[in-house]
Amino acid sequence: MTHEPHIPPAHFHIFTPCYDVLNEVLGLGRSFRRVVIETLALKGNECVLDAGCGTGSLLADLLATHPNIRLSGADPDTAALAIARRKLQGDIERVKVIKAPMDRLPFADASFDVVVSTLTFHHIPVERKSASLAECRRLLRPGGRILLADFGPDRARFFSRVALGFLNIFESISDNTRLPNLLAEAGFAQIRLVGRVHLTVMHTGLRGETRPT
Questions:
Q1: How many CB atoms lie within 10 A of CB 78?
Q2: What is the pTM of this model?
Q3: Residues 25-78 pLDDT 10s
Q4: Positive or negative: CA dihedral 64, 207, 8, 100
Q5: Which residues partner with 47 through β-bridges?
Q6: Which end of the chain lies in a sparser environment, N or C, as judged by fewer CB atoms within 10 Å?
Q7: Which of 46, 182, 61 shows the shortest CA–CA distance to 111?
Q8: How far is CA 195 from the centre of its chain?
Q9: How many Å apart are CA 95 and CA 205, to the nearest integer?
């Protein structure tokens, strides 16, 4: 399978080995992942996909918190996945990690109870964002849900607006203001803003009964 060019985790390939450190400095490391896991509120026996798993930090934390979940991760970046596999080498039989973009995930329909995607959506080209969300919906079982956490504006905070304005020079962050609409167009229902952590916003949605046309 050939993949279209993609933006690596830290925007430039040279920074991929430093990605985890950069996230810690920005407050998007362990403390951020802890909030994501708390927000997911898993029972511990679900089948979960991390779409855009990057270097695998969330996968590792999910396994440590819920050792009985069935976990998969997908990302288009070879270098990031190499880091993820090293990080997960003691658990490689418990988690499936594959190379794939978010809009073409090689799993059967209705394979997962939960899809989670963190700090990934702003990397996806504008023309592929809707297809990526529709693909996540395709993979969810009836009653399944998505948690999408990515950069988003907090209009009450001046620093947030300035920082995100700067980041938008490099990546398509401004589109994240449309996340609720994009999720609805992709066939998700009961879409809610469930939290803010530093420069990120978290939205959840349930798999709608009607597939988008």
A1: 12
A2: 0.88
A3: 878 899 999 999 999 999 999 999 999 999 999 999 999 999 999 999 999 999
A4: positive
A5: 70
A6: C
A7: 46
A8: 15
A9: 24
